[in-house]
Structures
1.
Amino acid sequence: MGRCSKGLLKIHTSIFSFRIKLMAEGELKDMEQFFDDLSDSFSGTEPEVHKTSVVGLFLRHMILAYSKLSFSQVFKLYTALQQYFQNGEKKTVEDADMELTSREEGERKMEKEELDVSIREEEVSCSGPLSQKQAEFFLSQQASLLKNDETKALPPASLQKELNNLLKFNPDFAEAHYLSYLNNLRVQDVFSSTHSLLHYFDRLILTGAESKSNGEEGYGRSLRYAALNLAALHCRFGHYQQAELALQEAIRIAQESNDHVCLQHCLSWLYVLGQKRSDSYVLLEHSVKKAVHFGLPYLASLGIQSLVQQRAFAGKTANKLMDALKDSDLLHWKHSLSELIDISIAQKTAIWRLYGRSTMALQQAQMLLSMNSLESVNAGVQQNNTESFAVALCHLAELHAEQGCFAAASEVLKHLKERFPPNSQHAQLWMLCDQKIQFDRAMHDGKYHLADSLVTGITALHSTEGVYRKAVVLQAQNQMTEAHKLLQKLLIHCQKIRNTEMVISVLLSVAELYWRSSSPTIALPVLLQALALSKEYRLQYLASETVLNLAFAQLILGIPEQALSLLHMAIEPILADGAVLDKGRAMFLVAKCQVASAASYDPPNKAEALEAAIENLNEAKNYFAKVDCKERIRDVVYFQARLYHTLGKTQERNRCAMLFRQLHQELPSHGVPLINHL
């Protein structure tokens, strides 16, 4: 019985091999005839194969899969079959040659290994198409990784190579074109991403995937969503005119088809394109109402987030914004929109920093980092590599750097670099953060040449920030004319794009430039303008910094008593939420005002006021030491040496004088009287 089974198996194997050879050496119609013969094997009163048997089920599945193939897919299958047969023939010939030349086996061992390696590489690069399920699993896995944990996805070049190999055998695989589009977005390749996106929708229409599920309406659906995605792509790369044209096309097709969902998406993108207009909030409010009406919680929540962001820039109070975000959070938890929960917390972090509440911002950032994702992701991937986490980590690094914790900031940046490699789509966030921290440290240390070299990198990542930093460096190098021209151009640009925060920062730099040029009276109107803007937009920290500058201007004008009263208004927010450098500046200014006010005191009160000023100078020196700001430490010890000399404390005076001399030899002199330097 066993011998009979083995004999039948050999017969069937030889028949199958003969049929494969016939198809491979013949034409495409031979393969079609093969599948027709398979269908005939189930017919008749006594069929060769029963439909319910294991072999029958397998054959029926194979016939069904073949029937679903398009013409191009059938041709690719036939080409792969020919390649498979040719590879098998090559291996058979090689085995026969090896038997005939066994005497030369030792001499040709190395050549055989090289040949085997080349054959294996050829099989990998020219392997046949994956099954439908294998291809779908590969695409869904990589798409999920690109969304949630880009570091675990294949590198851009490797993934594109795999996709090209997949499309070589099945060019009509629409999902592969879409993943290619996402992959090209990672490397900011506008041409290839546009090409892949258009191919995706072309294949979607040609294969009839949409029309099979949605009838003839599927074709129109593909067209309008193709235009919508094209508009989003152009908007991402800053091609706003092309984006607007594509969006108009999407709206036209969606209106013809009465597709309210597509129209809601178009309405959201209309706001994105026109958010710089003064009436854009009306469009956004309408979008949120419509999204709620049509039951689109994701769009409604994004609209609320955008509305909160816009009102934050418009100067609305923090309690109203947080109430709006609370309503948005209810939507997130109700519908398990974990991604939007992360975005909401990152938004709160940014809003608290905008309003100058660093403690609250730090709390929100840490809350986001401690949260686990609610969305289940394949392969044990956590949803912690999104833009929200990148933003939170960048805020965390900047907050630590502001407090002089540079080692902690470096650790956060190191983690950012590991989590978001340079080729990832959110890497620009930590790159800009890193450059800004390095710039600030170089400026604190008086290394203006190093700071100037960092300006180029900052400008490449954020042009407005780069121009502002360039002006700061020029001002520190006493190139006042060039700095003033640059600041005036930047001021006009920021007013045009309504970047109020930067407008105030530029006004403060202009005011500093005026008093360093011995023109404090010209600085006063500029500072009052900055204070009015800070109050109007409720930027508390910038308002406190502006008051600090006003107090300094009054000190220069010879009214230290009024400067001290102003300082009492501004110093509390600075000491509570300010950066360490600003705390030091504030305490240094208090000491200067105390000394200037003590000039008219009687000797006992004057000595007491000078002792209090020395204590404040010690506190300012400690703050400056935390951020390694040697230039300001030099100014403090110079001032202390003068005060100790007035009080007759020779030993303390000599100690401060020696420290001043060491720092003065190490650092370049800025050439400005110390009283004119805040």
2.
Amino acid sequence: MPKNTKVTQREHSNEPVTESVADLLSLEHPMDYKSSQMSMGLSPGSTAPVKALIPSPDPDAEDGRPAWNNKLEYILAQVGFSVGLGNVWRFPYLCQKNGGGAYLVPYFILLILIGIPLFFLELAVGQRIRRGSIGVWNYVYPQLGGIGVSSLMVCGFVGLYYNVIIGWSIFYFFQSFQYPLPWAECPIQINGSQAIVVPECDKSSATTYFWYRQTLNITSSIDDTGGLNWKMVLSLLVAWILVCLAVIKGIQSSGKVMYFSSLFPYLVLFCFLVRGLMLKGAVDGIAHMFTPKLEKMLEPQVWREAATQVFFALGLGFGGVIAFSSYNKRENNCHFDAALVSVINFVTSILATLVVFAVLGFKANIMNEKCVVDNAEKIIGFLNTGVLSKELIPPHINFSHLSTEDYAEMYGVIKTVKEDIFDQLGLDSCLLEDELNKAVQGTGLAFIAFTEAMTHFPASPFWSVMFFFMLINLGLGSMIGTMTGITTPILDAFKIRKEILCVACCVIAFLLGLLFVQRSGNYFVTMFDDYSAGLPLTVVVFLENISVAWIYGTERFMQDLEDMLGFRPYSFYYYMWKYVSPAILVLLIIATVIEMAISPAGYNAWVEAEGAEQFHSYPPWALAMAYSLIVVAMLPLPIVFLLRHYNLISDGSNKLSVSYRKGMMKDISNLEEQDEQRFILGKNPSEAPSPMPAPRPYLGPGGTQEMTNTNYGTSTKTGYQNIGSPESEL
């Protein structure tokens, strides 16, 4: 034993000597720290397959892991990943459907209860362990290592169809460079000596026709594939080339892309908001949007949809959040990052809602005025043929300048006097409220309703170019995060050149994505959107929560965060992680299963002869395909659990690198210098030196009440780890 150690000094001196963990570790033989295991509430001599989070690679160690150029790039990457197309076309729809301003209350409550805590949890484990989604959960609890594999599977499914939507946006973007816009008017076809409007367009609308026929050239059912739509194949190819170029050089290049792709949408949204507020009827749309229907707050469905939106708005469970945070420095304040990104996401949703309903309010006024004109012509026809008496028309009404108020008065008189034949007249009420209540979401909002509104804008091509360029950037930001969630765990597990892996992933994804650019491809996009992510991701995040809060231990995790961040997180997170978030996630899983069981499985097919959508049930093969998406995404969870439970595969750990061990020793030395008294092993010089550090009681979430674990167990692999003492994580 070296003569200058404090153990030796104690043997030759009567002075009390404090002995630190670093001193003891300096006497240890080299060992595989990564394969060492923690005992938690077990009998002596038994082991538990729970890795300590604390021995993570030091960001300054030469482990070859890339790092963000600066904090701003990282924040923009997280914002770009979490703020996506759903903020623009899903949140406004849910807000309108579920009570307007009243919907914001359950959404904000659930953002606080599950959104921010779970987002913080993913940021923390990624930053601490510095691995992708697969490596992180192999460290925390190897038997639940399937969590990372399931995340990767879901990322793959979502990326396949999400990039198709970017492809659609690219097609519309290039179509916007012409005046008038190609979807502004219905096309004319020559029938002999007559020029007539295409019947399909005449029965629907110009924008609807352009979407379903000119863009998708859609078939009437999912059974009829119709072959490839080559315009969409080319658009999808361009989309995958953009994504591949953005991620191929790693976070150094994708971080720089985020400067534009994350910030540009806010510029466009702000411009649309200013322009929208200047349009006639914009105030009507916004007022309708935020008029609270408080009775809606009592409906369970509203809370379920709010929880689902919170869940997906932040990108929880995809692996992208963990992957991005794994490139951070260890001391980065991820608690601040979690709150900041969550608030930005919420504010973006509100901003997008204001823009959408300002524009839709304008569109509703246009459509309402058109309705008044069309029905006024009907009334004039009835007056000329004698069906209606001219005495029914109030004397102050002028048909050449008919306002909506005048029409409403005339409509009421006719309905009252001619009640017996009123239904045969076919007059519409033309209420602005009815137009505003026509809820649209998803592709219906972006490619039909919004494009129709923009045809009435002055300089409509400019606004169309801006809008679809914004959608492309929103989609790219999310796709970069999704692809990072796929490539990071693979690169952590295998020594592959990043460029080769990215190109291979993009090529394979493009080939698989050809399913979605058939003429029936839109039906498969709907299927994947409904089935591939919802339930599997909810289960994944629930298991993430359980593995950290209950298997690894909330107390230990809180202590790890204090050692990593330099301060103890609020006790609020302790209770959210341990009790509230798991309970809400269980309720959400149950509600999702019930919703899938009682709701008919099907899709809205476009019927060309009618010029309208019609609900069709999935044929047996399509239904089997839909449910197989759920099974395939969740299958890694039980498979990995059983294989590791019966020791058929390793626990996913490789030997730690030298830099990894150096980082661990550096952590201990730094902590010792800051507060060596925390690691005192013996207070009385007469005590015999112990090979184990004395357990330090953990102070509960409030930091005042001592929490102890009396059922100690010791690991058979290491001589310095002890359950119940945070030193065991150090």
3.
Amino acid sequence: MAKIIQMAVMLGSSKLGHGAFGFDERQADSTPVPQMKRELPTRKMCLEAFKRTHYDILIIGGGAVGSGCALDAATRGLKTALVEANDFGSGTSSKSSKLLHGGLRDLEQAISRLDVAAFRRVRCSLQERSHIGKLAPHLSQPVPILLPVHHWWQAPLYYMKLKIYHLMAPKATRSFQYLSADDALEVFPMLRRQELFGAFVFYEGQHDDARMCLSVALTAARYGADICNHMKVSRLIKNKDGNVAGAEAVDQLTGKKYSIRAKVVVNATGHMSDSLRKMEDSEAKPLCTRSWSSIIVMPRFYCPEEWASSTRTRPLGHTLVGSSDEPLNLPEQDTQPTETDVQSLLDCVKHFVTPNFDVRRCDVLAVWGGYKPLPVQSDTLHHTRFKNHVIQLGPRNMLSIVGGTWSSFRVLAEKTVNAAIRYGDLSPLRKESVTAESCKLDGASGWSPKMFIRLVQDFGMERDVAEHLSNTYGSNAFKVAVSADSSGKAWPIVGKRLHSEFPYIEAEVKQGVRDFACTLEDMVARRLRVAFLNVQVAEEILPQVANIMAKELNWSRDQIKKQIRQTRTFLNSQMGQLTKESASQMNIPIKMSVRQVRKFAGQFRQMDENNTGYVSIADCCRAMKTMGVKEVPVDLMHDVLRDIDVHAQGKVNLYEFLLLMSAIVQGNTEYLRYARLYLDHKKQMQGSNFPAVMQMERAGGGL
């Protein structure tokens, strides 16, 4: 069975709360439960604090684990600093599957190999999934996953594994159920009927990874941690004994250097951890290896609402399809997906959906990829195939954490801070971590699933906007609503949308600046998250968002242009349709004379008045009529667009336009079809990198 990770795009966000957390008093430490010390500080306030404070712990890396370490340390009363070279969660932490796995893959290994360590990891992952649900109930929720059964003998095996999985989970976890083939097709009509015996439905956790990471970091700041993004460590500071005693970081926005001193320095830089370890010890052996995973975003019709499958999921109206983690040797800064990645995932989707449905390249709305850090194979890790994490004290007393997932970030942060307290001889106010039971992220307190109704009733917001704000900012959604401008309409009363396709409003841009967004990329990628859903929409709203940010950050016109230019480059290279090799995918020769090419190219330029590089299909139809086509053959045009495999919905670029005109106006449809068949055959004969089957245990969501 082909396996691909598929997940629901949950664009939830975090809500930043107004005060104390409601905590459980059950903890080993008799010290009172911590209260938030302050309102959210500004970035400038944190920079000033770096100059005068000698910290207990400095964490380098603002991803899931690094932000988790900052929260754990701050809630224990330690003087904490956190720096991130880019933006919080800008690396792997914002490029996950959006699922909080309970460890179903580990359970497969545990059963087949009687691996006790794997059983422990499954139990830990299930417990941590529950803890994260308590930590941020507004950002995480259960999602049903449909697991197809293709052979009768698979049913009892899957039942046994799911039964064990459910018994190991906390009591409140929803149970699983079995569906017949007809019932499975009723809830998931896109599923391929051939050889379908039935399906199981079980539940996993789902969350918005970027907003979760940001919310963890911001909550740590409210507990007293000084946090700062766009602060790149240039060197480690060492004391007279040669041990690490801090770091020198450069503000990437101003170029100013800051010397941040601390008793313990934690390296939580993910797949970049070995680079920082080289600063500690130039002879350090590699501790981290990497695997690569690519994800494409597709329209909502690929996955039923509120459902996911072992290959696809969809939460906030989009479908995510992702590859299993594969080892890949690329430069550390190279996070650009390739066209090979995209086509591989599309081929896997075709394997699962009904053959009556065309899976096309134009359905890909966004593309991204990320590295997953893994510990290097060692004598202590060789016994298990799914290596988890390593916490290591370096020769100069820098603590490095490598590995982990979103399902384990909290417990890894707890272990890392425990190690920092032990090795650094720190004196926290609370010896035990409070993040498992007693802590909630800022915005979680006072939130309820029906809170959005108040936003509709009290502020006159549209329902989808109100739900988005509630599930993104939690109880702080009211702060965003208060700052929202009037729509100028009878309804809705407040909330100017940035784009009709999404529930994002202008007031969120102002809130995003308060939430440490420093660049236009920060805003569209990790505050609004639109770049991860639809690159074309993200590019369309860039000028509007940049102008709002300019007022908040006092950008000049030149700075606005620079931000737009840099963000477009980011969208095209790391998030968009212009994947590696996509420019070289023009494999089908255009069957036209030079004179005809010039004629049609001139027609294309006339229609493309704004120099976007695209013209709409409607424009193409009008052009056909001016060239003698009395009635546009809509069905034939559909087949031609499928054979061309256009890269965008509803529009074509110049190359695609020429192929379209060649096929319909010139009558070369058969040539186009045979050319496509030849290319597909050539790709298979060359042993291409488009796997039809992936190892089940390497896949992201299934057994």
